[in-house]
Each structure stands twice: as structure tokens, then as C-alpha cells.
């Protein structure tokens, strides 16, 4: 008689070493040490299963979530034999932000090479998004999601930015971090050297930028959006540093007619990336 693999036993105790280990993955140092990441929420877990199934180690599903999202439960069962039914107290102890779905995956689920991104930029004129110091995890994840939505070649989170492998970034990206290449832990100068060598133009989004975005979109600026380019997006509070502005081929402003002093980084990125998308068509 053929032996059928049994499902893992239901997890009922929120005070085990397993639960504590998963909880510790919120810390960057432990993620680096263990080479693992924690993925939270039904959307992000589903995208992990679809786009990086080989990286999945364990999936934990709470009792209420089973009824709310049977589609994600089915996808999890198809992805790994290590899907664990859990009491809600167990998944909530792992993270209060999982909405009943937590996955543990290997760190290489989010892995990319800057040289490969640079080649894609040149071959397709899809932009790369460079974040020299985007520190807020929610903003970082939203930028990755926007880059994915508007067809960017990749995203670079330079040293000093939020870790793209952090649970909050992954959740804010709605799983887009598993769709496109995301590079981390390089300095702005290192990123500049690689991309400049490939002939990439650097466009700095800046409230006082010399070229209005509509001028650039009309192909009347110094850089055509149908040619290889990178968008450089500044820190949420302080914008781009002087040396970063000086490195840019052009600085780009977004005209506004209202009383708001500025746009937040996500709103500015959306407009810039949409313009790039239109420039490729």
C-alpha cells in the first residue's frame, strides 16, 4: 500500500521555540544570521508561493484565515508539505500583522544582481529605481510595488535604506518584492559606477529640479524617457544629498498648482514611473 505523507500536527502552543524563532525574524541581524525571512499576510504569502516556491520553508495558517482565504490555503498546500494549521494565538504570537498567514522562506527569495539589472535597463529602456536613503519600511515597500506596477527593471535600496527583506517592507510591497529584482546594501557610489558604465542617465526627483516632468515627458528635456535611465529618489525628510544631486544627469520637478509644499516620496515616484512607462510606448 502506498504511503501518504501526513500533514504536520496542528500547532496550539504560542510559547514554543519555533514560535519565538519566527518572531525573531523581524530583526535584521537574525535574518542575516539565519538566512531566512518572514513573510506576512495573505497577498504576500500568495506571491511568495507563486514566484519563489522553492524558497518556501514553512507556512503557518490560523484557524480564522482558513475560512477567509481558502484560495491561499490551497496554494500553500500545493507549494509545500510544511503547511501548518495553527491556533490563532500561535500565528498572532509570531506576528500581529499576518492576518492569519505567516511564511518562512530562505533569504534568496529576494536576491538580485545589479549588473543584470543594468543590462535590462540598457536592453529595454525600463528604468531602475534608486533609493539612497529610504528609511521608512512602508515607503520602501510601496516604492517596490510602484516599480513593479509600472514595469521598472529593478529597485536598489542603498545602504541606509530599509531592508527589502524585512517583514514590513515585504507586506507593504504586496508581494511585488518577489516579482522584480531588488538589490540592497550597496552605496550610492557603487550603484552609480555600475549603471553609468552602461550609459544610464540619472534623473533626480527634486522639488527644485531644473526640468519639469511634463517637459521631460514631451521629449524636450536633456534625457529621453525612451532611453536607459534611472530615477533617484531622495530621503523622505531631507531629499537628495548634494553629491547625489551633482551626480544626476538632470534634476526633475513635478509642477503643482495647489498649496501643498511637496509630494510624499510614493506620490512623486508614481508620477515619475508612469511618465517612464509612457515614454517607452
Automatic annotation (TrEMBL):
Residues of the tRNA/rRNA methyltransferase SpoU type domain: 128-274
Superkingdom of this protein's organism: Bacteria
Entries under Gene3D superfamilies matching the protein: 3.30.1330.30, 3.40.1280.10
A biological-process GO annotation: methylation
CDD domains for this protein: SpoU-like_rRNA-MTase
Signal peptide from the UniProt entry: none
GO MF, one example: RNA methyltransferase activity
Protein name: tRNA/rRNA methyltransferase SpoU type domain-containing protein
Presence of keyword Magnesium: no
Keywords: Methyltransferase, Transferase
Keyword Methyltransferase: yes
PANTHER family named among the record's database cross-references: RRNA METHYLTRANSFERASE 3, RRNA METHYLTRANSFERASE 3, MITOCHONDRIAL
Amino acid at each position: 500500500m502506498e504511503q501518504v505523507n501526513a500533514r504536520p500536527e496542528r500547532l496550539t502552543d504560542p510559547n514554543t521555540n519555533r514560535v519565538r524563532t519566527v518572531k525573531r525574524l523581524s530583526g535584521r541581524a537574525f535574518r542575516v544570521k539565519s538566512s531566512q525571512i518572514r513573510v506576512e499576510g495573505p497577498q504576500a504569502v500568495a506571491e511568495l508561493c507563486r514566484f519563489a516556491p522553492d524558497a518556501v520553508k514553512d507556512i503557518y495558517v490560523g484557524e480564522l484565515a482558513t475560512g477567509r482565504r481558502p484560495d491561499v490555503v490551497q496554494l500553500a498546500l500545493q507549494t509545500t508539505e510544511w503547511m501548518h494549521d495553527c491556533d490563532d494565538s500561535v500565528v498572532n504570537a509570531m506576528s500581529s500583522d499576518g492576518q492569519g498567514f505567516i511564511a518562512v522562506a530562505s533569504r534568496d527569495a529576494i536576491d538580485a544582481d545589479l549588473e543584470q539589472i543594468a543590462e535590462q535597463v540598457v536592453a529595454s529602456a525600463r528604468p531602475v529605481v534608486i533609493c539612497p536613503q529610504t528609511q521608512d519600511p512602508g515607503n520602501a515597500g510601496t516604492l517596490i510595488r510602484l516599480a513593479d506596477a509600472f514595469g521598472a527593471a529593478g529597485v536598489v535600496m542603498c545602504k541606509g535604506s530599509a531592508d527589502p527583506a524585512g517583514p514590513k517592507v515585504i507586506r507593504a510591497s504586496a508581494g511585488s518584492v518577489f516579482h522584480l529584482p531588488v538589490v540592497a546594501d550597496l552605496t550610492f557610489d557603487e550603484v552609480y559606477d555600475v549603471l553609468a558604465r552602461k550609459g544610464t542617465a540619472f534623473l533626480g526627483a527634486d522639488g527644485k529640479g531644473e526640468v519639469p516632468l511634463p517637459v521631460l515627458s514631451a521629449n524636450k528635456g536633456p534625457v529621453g524617457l525612451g532611453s536607459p535611465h534611472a530615477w533617484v529618489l531622495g530621503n523622505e525628510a531631507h531629499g537628495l544629498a548634494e553629491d547625489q544631486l551633482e551626480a544626476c544627469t538632470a534634476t526633475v520637478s513635478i509642477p503643482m498648482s495647489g498649496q501643498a509644499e511637496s509630494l510624499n516620496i510614493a506620490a512623486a515616484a508614481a508620477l515619475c514611473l508612469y511618465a517612464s512607462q509612457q515614454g517607452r510606448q
